[in-house]
Amino acid sequence: MPFRTDYDYSTEENIQFMHRIVKLMMQHKITPTPINYAVFYEYTASYNDNLKAAVDQLIAENNPFDMETGLALYKKHICHAALVSFDKINQDIQRIIDQTGKSVNETQQKASEASDSFEEKSIRLESITNLEELKTVLSEIAGETKDLIDTSDHFKSQLEAANKEMEQLRKELSKVKEAATVDALTGLLNRGTFDETLTNLLEESSDKDICLTLLDLDHFKQVNDKFGHLIGDNVLKFTASLLKKYCEKHHYVARYGGEELAIIMPDTSLSAAQDIAEKIRTSLQNSRLKRKNSNESIGTITLSIGIAARKQNDTMESLILRADQALYKAKETGRNKVICEWAMDAISHC
């Protein structure tokens, strides 16, 4: 299957899928991990014939569907599709390069032959003694000139066509790259890109200021239970928009998982990270979110936020752990607050 960068089902249909997926996974005693959910989403949506056949076979043979099985299906039938798409784009680019190179060689060959011919005719013109012979040579020159112009025009057309195709391939490549790095719901970076970005930043320099901010929507399950997942999705998207609004251009904003978001803040002090986090928290708390169709208030939505600053010899795991501990302390001490790692013992606001 081609790697998908969009899904054509509405939110309502996706919610129906969710119920079907959960029912199916419970029926076959499959652990509802994110990987397994992704596998069964593709299975239920019937996007992926090869995956569907593989799952049907597992079910028919009553084979166990453990974590390793789900991961293997995901890698083979979902992740692999992205690699296939990259491969096809690379092959198309190479084909265009080869075709253009061939056209250049052919045009150069014809130009060289024309140059030799013109030189030969130039010598003939010097020794012409009658009008008929002059007409013959001039006619030959005119014909060869026309051939050369035709060759040049053909080459120009080929270049224009190649440029158009390359532009289309660039767009396709951009879509594939975006789909591989961006969370579809919020438009933020996805978890995989978050992990890769944080790891790379930590490895680049051992003394570079990096703050990590983890944000979690308070009582988000209650929002979903009371208003439905459509409203929950909209709350997540609105919260994501606030992060984009208040973060600096060099910050990396990601959906960390579920209702949890994250901001990687390179070249940012702890106090600056704290100021940004407070702006986000205050802005969300003061927002008056309502249902579009009924104008019903959704109530006050709040965030608990934990911040950790990079220490010497920090790994991705150790930095995340301290930010997560600060977030947990914010939750534990009343929610709707920002806690920095150095303030955890005092259980105070940053």
Describe the structure.
By secondary structure, the chain is an alpha+beta fold. It folds into two domains: 1-180, no CATH class; 191-343, 2-Layer Sandwich (Alpha-Beta Plaits). It is 65% helix and 9% strand. The protein has ten helices and five strands. It has helices at residues 11-27, 34-45, 49-60, 67-126, 131-181, 191-204, 220-227, 229-246, 270-286, 316-332; strands at 210-217, 252-257, 260-266, 303-309, 338-340. It has a five-stranded mixed sheet, with helices on both faces. The longest helix is centred in the first third of the chain and has 60 residues, at 67-126. The two termini are 50 Å apart. Keywords: Coiled coil. This is diguanylate cyclase. Pfam families: GGDEF (PF00990).
Specify the structural class: alpha+beta
* Helix-strand string: HHHHHHEHHEEHEHE
Distance between the termini: 50 Å
Largest sheet: 5 strands, mixed
Tally of helical segments: 10
Indicate the overall shape: elongated
Question: Whole-number radius of gyration?
Answer: 31 Å
